[in-house]
Amino acid sequence: MRGIGFAALAVLALAGCSKTDDGPKLATEGVTDAMIAAAEGGEWLSYGRDYGEQRFSPLDQINAGNIGELQLAWYADLDTARGQEATPLMHDGTLYITTAWSMVKAYDAATGKVKWEYDPQVPRETLVRACCDAVNRGVALYGDKVFVATLDGRLVALDQDTGAVAWEHMVVPDQESYTITGAPRIAKGMVLIGSGGSEYKARGYLAAYDADTGKRRWIFHTVPGDPSKGFENEAMEKAAETWGGEWWKLGGGGTVWDSITYDPTTGLVYFGTGNAEPWNPAANNRGEGDSLYTGSIVAVDAATGEYRWHFQETPEDRWDYDSNAQITVADLTLDGKQRRVVMHAPKNGFFYVLDAKTGEFLSGKAFAPQTWTDGLDAKGRPNILQAARYEQTGEAFMGTPGAIGAHSWQPMSFSPMTGLVYIPTNFTVQGYLAQKNWEETDIGFQIGLDAASVAMPADEAIRKQFAGQTTGALVAWDPVAQKEAWRVPQKGPWNGGTLATAGNLVFQGDAAGMFNAYSADTGQKVWSFGAQTGVIAAPMSFSIGGEQYVAVLAGWGGVWDLVAGVLADKSGPVRNVSRLLVFKIGGTAKLPEVPALNETVLDPPPFRGTADQVAKGGSLYHRYCSVCHGDAAVGGAMVPDLRRSGALASQEAIKSIVVDGALKHQGMVSFASAIKPDDAEAIRQYIINRANEDAALAKKR
């Protein structure tokens, strides 16, 4: 695999560099700390525009009075037909984006002319350890450099003018369990980045790297390691008291795959952490403790990485309720006093307001329906219902929210003008059932669930029931009153991030293929544009030559399309058309026509397997295959629908793919370490059976 020898040496070399005596070199030219802190309205210099990640543009040239004149100024087709999740950045007339597979592109922001392109050549085999598509959420700008973190775990600094590589370091511990999909952030001359991997064998962390050289300045682990090797600090020693069994053998989880916010006012970096690993606490006897610091917001000193405080939102997390949704910092008037606060709407469905300096819980209310708890106590700790502890009851638990969360990575925005937070909200139900006699493997998810037993059956009534419970909404939330101000219902979940502007507008794309604008104070829809594909990324706004622009990446994908099976169609179109769309008043560009969808009729080979093969194949499929090919073998838009695969006709064809790795360079690596030829045949028979079930169901309609 590319660069592994260098990577191993780089990680070893950097491991001892916690920080240097002279500190990082602060930029005095190009994009500086002061510029990011000031967040001048015409530019968009950081992922959330300002350090507080408010995603509020002070530009008001585009407003409720002239929104009807907003038209496409230019667009750029992208060459990666995967989910597009990045927020563009704009500095000095150049628009910087990332696409899937961690590619970077720079455009003239006014005309759309390509200035340069960079492809880190991520090995496609990396996809096997990426839980949720080959996505990337954007770059960071500092000094004269552009920073991108790649799916295979490199942090790369590029020249802003040319795209030439200034430096590159492998920053993840191994090439088996870690990936990076998040956008880097900047603090005090350092680049901050974590990683994904909590479904594999990763140990979460946030690290800071010198922006000038790439040397690591500090690292904070989010879960304790092997106690026999000692603890890095007091925070890890205390956290170990909340774990049971030999948790470190599966890494522990708690990865920082998004949600990094630096606050110059307090000098702290706030970041969210992912789920504990495995999800099922009984799978490796990690115990019923809180499993710190998973499911939490953690605050560390920006200069040193030293622990300052934490607030755990989801103790005992066994539902994948990551706290990696965007963290927003603002000044709010609470009980007649102005307080600097952290606002957070994580997967678990509660909206939290915390004191930014101390982490004190100030308030918390549910912004989405929940079945795992009946509320928070006075300190913000949830009362977990016994039925939600599925590993104890031995019964299936129908969890609301599901694992995609009431709010995931799609960024929310906060308008100081209205005082409202605009949350892309998901309403879903998911079945959780503990796997009996679960054992870890060296490939695939390590979550300890029996997903096959709660997979969607070929039953029209049950499918309609779940479809009725699977929707979405744009929710405007009052963080002071802790109540909903207004709501825009949406067809399904997995809609785009939001942008609030001084023009009293909220922009959001949706999974059904529309890019919309709403009145920020009332929620009335005032404008829409057909994007020809689902929009899951967040918009941004900038100005050049006295004209305001709004830009958004369009391209359906991500985890919902990959894993939701028949329910993925509830949200949006079954196509990916990856583009960068840029709008202005009076724009004249037009999108080309897109051919109509022409899905082939299911015509599978006859089922000649056995019931035992179907049962075995279903269990294996849902452990190793469903994360990319969908619940109950119903594929989404981005990967082949296995029910329609020609390989189903041949036992040898399936073996060549699943066991021999014939398609490894397309991301479908060999699973030979976990799946033997007889297992591959069982999976084939399971898929054939599923295809015949769905074909029969279609004929009844």
Which key phrases capture this entry?
11 helices, four-stranded antiparallel β-sheet, 701 residues, globular, Methanol Dehydrogenase, Chain A, five-stranded mixed β-sheet, disordered N terminus, alpha+beta, Cytochrome Bc1 Complex, Chain D, domain 2
Topology:
Blueprint: H1 4-15, H2 33-38, E1 56-57, E2 70-77, E3 89-91, E4 94-98, E5 104-108, E6 114-118, E7 140-142, E8 145-149, E9 154-159, E10 165-170, E11 185-187, E12 190-193, E13 205-210, E14 216-221, H3 234-240, E15 260-263, E16 268-272, E17 296-301, E18 307-312, E19 327-334, E20 337-344, E21 350-355, E22 361-366, E23 373-376, E24 382-384, H4 390-393, E25 397-399, E26 413-415, E27 420-427, E28 430-432, H5 460-468, E29 471-478, E30 483-490, E31 498-501, E32 505-509, E33 514-519, E34 525-530, E35 540-544, E36 547-554, H6 559-563, H7 568-571, E37 579-585, H8 611-624, H9 626-629, H10 651-658, H11 677-700
Parallel strand pairs: 1-31
Antiparallel strand pairs: 2-37, 3-4, 4-5, 5-6, 7-8, 8-9, 9-10, 11-12, 12-13, 13-14, 15-16, 16-17, 17-18, 19-20, 20-21, 21-22, 23-24, 25-28, 26-27, 27-29, 29-30, 31-32, 32-33, 33-34, 35-36, 36-37
Helix pairs in contact: 8-11, 10-11
